[in-house]
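Re: beginner question about structure tokens

> Can someone show what the tokenized structure looks like for a real chain? I only ever see the sequence side.

Sure, here's an example I had lying around. Input first:
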Amino acid sequence: MERSVWLVSITHMFLEVYYLIPVALIPVFMSEFHIGLLETSLVATVPSLVTIFMNIPVGYLADRISVNRLLSASMAIEAASAFAISQTNSFWVLVLCVSVMRTCSPIYHITGLSSISRAVAQKRISRSMGVHNALGSLGSAIGLVSLAVFQSVTSWRWMYIFWPVPIFVWGIIILKSPQLKTTRTDSAEKRPVMKRLPLLFSAGFIIFLVAIGLREVGNTGTSTFMTTYLVDTRGLSEVTASLIFGLGPFTGILGSLVGGFLGERIGAKKTLSLVMVGCIFSLATISFSPDLFVLAIVYILYSFFSNSVWSPMNTLVADLTPKNERGLSFSIYFLTEGIVCSATPVVAATVIGLTSIWVIFPFSVAFIALGLFTLQMLSYRKSEK
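And the corresponding structure tokens:
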């Protein structure tokens, strides 16, 4: 596999270290800052709103600025905002800093994924995406394990003091990497954005966006309030809840590799459909698990399937859109996810407030099932334009 793919994938690992930390800390934030569930959900909602406004500009830049500069910038933003979080005693400053940190996500993902989709042959995109997503899951797992360790020994704040150093160092390495000093030079980048958009919005791509939007509602609802369910309903300690939550990304490593392998063998659409079915059945079982051991096993299965979706979804973006418009294609894809991620926590928190936190599971299952149904309408040929 190309060296550039490995460099981008390792960057993904560092980026994802903090991805799940804010939602894992929701019970801690509620206790430390003396706020309710609805206010705490802003830790997930406001940062997601920020990513919405970043997606299209970053997609524009991804086709014009060298990969190493954009990836290095994402590392610098992550390191600086993480250290700022470690020093704040205000919840609203915390929300601001987490929001700044989330700006590095669209910068990285749009740049990195469009780079991989251009660097490898069409038939090997799924496998490369599998490796890329596996390292991202490894980063999330490392982050959650680190959080559990720091919570047990000192404080959650040390999670935001320790990791900025290696992240910043890796940003310098990426900046100096000759393999990533690439940029677009073809005539497509000279076209105005408004003239490029009609090239992307085929019927297939629109159906795909609707399907992944519905799926993301279900996924975001569960991931945002999983630790809260474990603490409030199952009576677990915050540390134990973080450890169980941290099992997910570890299985995500295998899930990402399996998703990439299956996508190459049977096709991205079939793979995505199969793992969504797995998500539905495993998620529906979680709330009925009789004890902690069974719950942990079922959650591992759900996390395996949930993390298997990324390789086929990223591959479908490449299959459904022109090669010369990948930066803008991925920005629209992440824009859709960003809109959903920003709205879902508040909606889910409102539903929980009117009923109980258990309702988050049928809520999530219903939306994933709707996404699966919509995906079956998709018919396409791989784009080589």
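Each token stands for a local structural state, so reading them left to right follows the chain. The domain at 3-180+191-375 is CATH 1.20.1250.20 (Growth Hormone; Chain: A;).
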